[in-house]
């Protein structure tokens, strides 16, 4: 069938019947769909192709969905909808903290899932691909950041953190919240890794009109010049 919408979907699901049923539904709506039954295959597909959306099961063989989401977020901001039979609130919070965009619980309605997918894509498309703050311009499609006409060199983690702060100016995030979002619940390294990345970002942001300030005993906040 002709892909009229031009959207590409990756379904990461080890339940073949569910994956194929979901794929058939989205294909019938004009999507181009690929299926991966486990995490490593999904990562290989993401290296080879661009996808507009990922439907990601939490309970996968090998890497679970949370671990896979964190790995994907190291290099990509592709929208992710978690699909799972787990209904605990802490699981949902974990999914959102790791960079998931929405959460659907099994069993689910295919029309409702499709509506969620389209609403998510329309919201992202409506925001545009360029984000401007102070003297910064961020091209979210190409993961590039300019300070006026100077291209900034940002590793994936710094880019992800900068984008997060720019999308949430004025809000305060403590070290634990940032650790969970960018390194995950199971991170066992030094928590000062957050401070080190903030220090690097501050240096990068000099003379940009955007400043990450420390709010004593609370956390970090992005401030943008009017």
3D structure, described in words:
- This protein is of the alpha/beta class and 226 residues long.
- Helix content is 41%, strand content 23%.
- It has eight helices and twelve strands.
- The strands form three sheets. A five-stranded parallel sheet has the order 2-1-3-4-5, with helices on both faces.
- The longest helix is centred in the middle third of the chain and has 18 residues, at 110-127.
- The termini are far apart.
- The mean pLDDT is 86.
Strand content: 15-25%
Query: Strand count, sense and closure of the main sheet?
Result: 5 strands, parallel
- The low-confidence runs, each spanning 5 or more residues with pLDDT under 50, are none
Number of helical segments with 4 or more residues: 8
Mean pLDDT: 86
Residues in helix, %: 40-55%
Helix/strand order: EHEHEHEHEHEEEEHEHHEE
Overall body shape:
globular
Give the structure's gist in a few sentences.
With 226 residues, the protein is α/β, with parallel strands linked by helices. It has helices at 16-28, 39-48, 65-73, 89-97, 110-127, 156-167, 175-183, 193-204; strands at residues 8-12, 32-36, 53-57, 80-84, 102-105, 130-133, 136-139, 144-147, 150-152, 172-173, 210-215, 219-224.
């Amino acid at each position: 069938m002709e892909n009229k919408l031009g959207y590409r979907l990756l379904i990461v699901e080890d339940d073949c019947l569910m994956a194929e049923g979901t794929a058939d539904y989205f294909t019938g709506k004009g999507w181009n769909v690929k299926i991966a039954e486990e995490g490593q295959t999904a990562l290989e597909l993401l290296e080879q192709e661009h996808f507009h959306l990922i439907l990601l099961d939490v309970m996968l063989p090998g890497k679970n969905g949370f671990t896979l989401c964190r790995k994907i977020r190291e290099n990509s901001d592709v929208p992710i909808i978690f699909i799972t039979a787990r209904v605990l609130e802490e699981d949902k919070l974990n999914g959102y903290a790791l960079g998931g965009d929405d959460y659907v619980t099994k069993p689910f309605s295919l029309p409702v899932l499709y509506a969620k997918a389209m609403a998510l894509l329309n919201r992202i498309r409506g925001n545009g691909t360029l984000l401007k703050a102070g003297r910064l311009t961020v091209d979210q499609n190409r993961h590039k950041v300019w300070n006026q006409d100077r291209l900034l060199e940002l590793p994936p983690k710094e880019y992800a953190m900068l984008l997060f702060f720019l999308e949430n100016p004025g809000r305060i995030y403590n070290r634990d919240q940032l650790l969970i979002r960018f390194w995950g619940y199971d991170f066992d390294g030094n928590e000062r890794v957050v401070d080190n990345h903030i220090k690097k970002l501050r240096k990068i942001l000099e003379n940009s009109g955007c400043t990450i300030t420390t709010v004593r005993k609370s956390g970090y906040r992005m401030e943008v010049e009017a």
